[in-house]
Amino acid sequence: MGLVPLLPMAVTEEANGEWVDAASGKTFESINPATEEVLASVAHGEAEDADRAVRAARAAFEDGSAWRRMPHGRRGKVLHKLGDLILENLDRRRSSRGTSRC
Fold first, then answer.
1. 3-class DSSP state for residue 36?
2. 63 plus 75 within the same structural domain
């Protein structure tokens, strides 16, 4: 799955490799404090959602899971790529708003 679009968007939780809504269906708005612009509608996670995420994370590290079987060098590359994508999207967003990296 690719990264979610930057604006406008609804952010859901990721559990077990899938984006899911909060169990309650509740959301809240994430607001830019400088402009008061609504950035996203975000899933409002509660205890049930945290439990679901913990179960998914534990399953990812069980013996025989794909992540566990992946060589550590490959896992490192995956994590570095994720970091690069985050920075790339931040840079793209900043440049579209005329702000610089701090």
1. coil
2. no
Rounded Cα–Cα distance for residues 54 and 5 (Å): 26
Query: Would you say how long the chain is, in residues?
Result: 102
- For tokens 């566990």, the residue is 68
Rounded to an integer, what distance in angstroms lies between the CA atom of residue 100 and that of residue 13?
29
Please state, in angstroms and as integers, the Cα–Cα distance from residue 63 to each residue in 15, 17, 48, 58, following that order: 19, 17, 25, 10
Question: Rounded to 5 degrees, what are φ and ψ at 25?
Answer: 80, 0
Residue-wise pLDDT for 62-71, tens only, equals 888 888 888 9
Contact 52, 21 (CB under 8 A): no
Regarding whether 85 and 60 lie in a shared domain, the answer is no
Q: Copy the structure tokens of residue 12.
A: 């859901």
Q: Give 42-52 pLDDT, tens digit per residue.
A: 888 889 988 98
Determine the structural domain holding residue 24 and report its residue range.
Answer: 1-69
What is residue 101's three-state secondary structure? coil
pTM above 0.85, yes or no: no
